[in-house]
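Session log. Operator J.P. requested a structure for one protein chain; no other inputs attached. Running the standard single-chain path with token output.
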Amino acid sequence: MGSSKNMSNELLVVVYFVLHIFFSCSPKYTPYSGEKAFTSENGTPDYSQLKYWAAHPDKWDPSDSVSLPLRTSPSNKDADVFFLHPTTFTDQKDADQPNAKIDDGFINSKTDYSSILYQASVFNGSCRIFAPRYRQAHLQMYYIKDTLKALAAFELAYQDIKSAFIYYLKTQNNGRPIIIASHSQGTTHAKRLLKEFFEDSVLRKQLVVAYILGIPVEKSYFAELPICTDSTSTGCYISWRTYRKGYEEGSISSKDTSIAVINPYLWTPNQDLAAKNLQKGAVLYNFNKIYRHTQTSQIAGNALWISKPKFPGGFFYFTKNYHAGDFNLFYLDVRDDVARRIRIFERGLEK
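Structure written below.
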């Protein structure tokens, strides 16, 4: 998991209010709970069984959904994405339970019809999608004073993810290009996964790019894995956290330059203002609607600042913290970037 200092830094930016709105314990997930319910033999995931995967190419799942305006676009599954979903174990009544049960039908349906549908689907135009279920830490583990309890919760979650990744490498990868993608708690674990499996490893040669969003990634965190500096780099990582222009609260500071931030319109770390007409499109609550040119974007210190998004029915964008929209506000921008970097990566293999 890393040091308690790093965990404390991360909890400052995991904002419960925003996550609660986007991934709320809403009755809308209840109809799917039975569909996602199963009984785990011993409470430990067995990744040889499809039920322990929120997304997997050998079954239909919400990551296979394509927004209506994109259904005529070509699709090429030339790479694999290993996607780590954010925290969906958030209900206050469960706050004394450090980790989610792997076979909780409600949490699994909530994960699948929020993060897997709205975030993991970004990659389905170019990738096979692998998203493991894992015994995620409860959201309150970012906040509690009992550091040992929190570290143990995140450690259990990471060990599930590590087991899933090892299984994927042994049985599914077969030398294919890999993308690591994650959001929020998923990024807490993705940072560690990248450090353990891709730094100082032959596996790094298969890494197209990593999109690790929603949690601060210190520029000093990786010894060898570089931040992407332009739209054509591969073998590197991309990160950002999205806030309203002018937002500076808690650890968010326009003067802090220690955190890696990329502007998803420019795909560079420079602090130029990117006009809203550079945005390719957002996919928000209405999955079959694409909103274009909704906001400007600009790096300000350790965060990505955007203007207030303009679209009908702002949903959760009344707040100045757009954590839940880190992928969705730039849905088409990321989707196109994935395809471009895979093409560039493959051309490099041909040389």
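Operator note: The CA atoms of residues 29 and 110 lie 6 Å apart.
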